[in-house]
Amino acid sequence: MTETRDERAERGSVAITFWQGAAIIFGANIGAGILSLPYGARNGGVLALVVALAIAGFLTTVSMLYVAEVSLRTREPLQLSGLARKYLGNVGSWLIFAGVVINGLGALIAYASGSGSILADLLGISPLLGSTLFFVPGVVVIWLGLKATGRSEQAITVTMLAIILLLSAWTFIGPGIDPANVSYMDPYFVVPIINLAVFAFIAQYTVPELARGLASHSPRALPRAVVAGMCATGFLLALVPLAALGMMGRDGVSEVITIAWGEGLGTSAYYLANIFALLAMLTSFWAIGLTLMTNVLDRFRWPATGSPRHRLAALALIAVPPFLIATVGLAGFVSALGYAGGFAGAIMSIVPVLMLRRARVEGDQEPAWRAGWIAHPALQVTLVTVFGLAFVYSLLNATGLVPQGWS
């Protein structure tokens, strides 16, 4: 069928490059999670954190690649909840939508809380004003859409990497790392760290949006962008706790790590560390907010283009509640992340297994790329088991029934 001029214009308006796709994955992951990991991992140690990151990162990447194949098998550009509706019916759609919303709102609550605290400390303003100043550019870029988000993510990601590599080198060369701070490991704490690591890696909801920007002109770049973004994420998620915990030890880290880390290195490093924190939150806010908004549009079948009132309503639904919850102090920073990671991780990592199986039977087209050995049934069972247990942990944590020291 011949493509119309309007269809070509729409396709061109959302087309992104491989590096922009990888940057969106990286930006979605490098946000509140990286700022809370050193504090969350302080009892288990860096080695326990590396184990948790390896498990959560690998399995989450596998789940994301399942979503990539499902997206490439589907002719219509659907979001995660739309794909679930197509292949699993309304129950599956509402489950995945709930996972997207819980994870997304949990993240945005953490960004509102964390950004307000950091800007208040840096500028001497109120946390409420700080959160407001953070949300304005965040909402503007989300409103502008996928292409603006991809370009913004790519530009700021380079700056973030430069800052964090500089701070890490500063730590290693300057104060140095105390081997005792990084060599201890308590396996007892691997489980709660995995629950937090799940949140730091979870970005399945961004994959269909990336497919919309890559599938039309470079479909095989989609899985490569996912893997590249996740590998870069894993490297940084390990590097920051290594440097911060190695320098300060378990008793010296703060809930938002850049505050204590920057103070430990001096005034200049303090400002650099907190600029990194704000940029990390901002890039993650863009990626998560955009995909959350498009999932709202998709789930309620509102027009994604040509109807500013529907787009504004969706934007208000994803931005206003987390802002209000965070600014009235109803959710702590790390606790918000832990609950979101467990609840959303189970849904958004297990449902893609079911979608992949159904899409291989009922998909619209042969995909340009297929998940190979990673789609083995044994690996699918492992994925469901691990993230199912993470869900159970979150339930127990929410009711205060977790073992002593895990909460």
UniProtKB/TrEMBL annotation:
Entry keywords, A to Z: Cell inner membrane, Cell membrane, Membrane, Transmembrane, Transmembrane helix, Transport
Annotated InterPro entries: Amino_acid_transport_2
Any GO BP: amino acid transmembrane transport
Pfam families hit by this protein: Trp_Tyr_perm
Membrane topology term: Multi-pass membrane protein
Main location: membrane
Record-annotated membrane-spanning stretches: 12-34, 46-67, 87-112, 124-146, 158-177, 189-207, 227-249, 269-292, 312-331, 337-356, 377-396
Localisation per UniProt entry: Cell inner membrane
One Gene Ontology term, aspect cellular component: plasma membrane
Name this protein carries in UniProt: Amino acid permease
Organism whose genome encodes this protein: Halostreptopolyspora alba
